[in-house]
């Protein structure tokens, strides 16, 4: 397990969220208009790791701590989340928000996409000792749509991390999925992450 230091720890920690930590908390209770709260990803539905199984913490009410990079500040208190980790420096996070109306969900998903579209610039403005670059991988045709982004960060002290993010919506429910590990864009499991995103959005209701 590696631990980030200096002022940029919060930013880069999101790229390996949950890599060796399960945060125990009260199970989420917020329910949407369906028969119950949205289902979350199972560990086996995450991009496969070549040398480790995935493990999952409980579905937890509220905002994750630490907040995920770039989208964290937009997450409301009604969010619920689940962290995932492997035995190595790879972690993931899913955050789901059930809004009161489809209109509010559309607006919230658009806000998250806007934050991710400017993620690299935001990171560099807030953390001068980090260089960030990003890619947009496009829209996935699942339910009301999902969008996939990649962000690579390099710190002044040599750490290199790659993160994949997606924002998807089904009716009044919005979900964010994040995957991260040490590496570069060459190490990003884009196709596997896109499959994970499709599964996550399909499971919302």
Summarize the structure.
The chain is an alpha+beta fold and 205 residues long.
Structure description:
There is one protein chain. The protein has 205 residues and is of the alpha+beta class. The protein has a single domain (9-202), classed as 3-Layer(aba) Sandwich (Protein Transport Mog1p, Chain A), CATH 3.40.1000. Helix content is 20%, strand content 30%. It contains four helices and eight strands. Strands 1, 2, 3, 4, 5, 6, 7 and 8 form an eight-stranded antiparallel β-sheet that branches. A hairpin with a 2-residue loop joins strand 7 (160-170) and strand 8 (173-182). The radius of gyration is 16 Å and the shape is globular. The N and C termini lie far apart (35 Å).
Poorly predicted sequence stretches spanning 5 or more consecutive residues? 1-35
- SSE order: HEEEEHHEEEEH
Question: Main β-sheet: number of strands, strand sense, barrel status?
Answer: 8 strands, antiparallel
Radius of gyration: 16 Å
Structural class comes to alpha+beta
Count, helices: 4
Given this structure, which CATH class is correct? Alpha Beta
Mean pLDDT equals: 86
Quaternary state of this entry equals single chain
Relative helix content: 10-25%
Number of DSSP-assigned strands: 8
- CATH fold topology: Protein Transport Mog1p, Chain A
Looking at the structure, what is the overall shape? globular
Query: How large a portion of the residues is in β-strands, by DSSP E?
Result: 25-35%
Count of domain modules: 1
End-to-end distance:
35 Å
Task: Assign the CATH architecture.
Answer: 3-Layer(aba) Sandwich
């Amino acid at each position: 397990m590696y631990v980030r230091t200096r002022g940029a720890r919060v930013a880069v920690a999101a790229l390996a969220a949950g890599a060796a930590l399960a945060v125990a908390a009260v199970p989420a209770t917020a329910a949407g208009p369906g028969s119950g709260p949205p289902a979350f990803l199972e560990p086996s539905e995450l991009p496969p790791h070549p040398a480790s199984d995935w493990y999952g913490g409980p579905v937890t009410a509220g905002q994750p701590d630490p907040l995920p990079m770039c989208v964290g500040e937009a997450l409301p208190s009604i969010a619920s989340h689940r962290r995932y980790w492997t035995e190595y420096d790879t972690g993931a996070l899913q955050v789901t928000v059930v809004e009161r109306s489809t209109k509010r969900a559309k607006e919230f998903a658009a806000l998250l996409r806007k934050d991710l579209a400017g993620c690299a610039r935001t990171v560099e403005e807030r953390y001068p000792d980090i260089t960030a670059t990003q890619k947009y991988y496009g829209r996935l045709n699942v339910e009301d749509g999902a969008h996939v982004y990649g962000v690579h960060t390099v710190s002044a002290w040599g750490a290199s991390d790659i993160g994949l993010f997606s924002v998807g919506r089904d009716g009044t429910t919005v979900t964010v999925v994040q995957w991260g590990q040490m590496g570069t864009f060459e190490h990003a499991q884009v196709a596997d992450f896109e499959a994970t995103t499709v599964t996550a959005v399909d499971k919302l209701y």
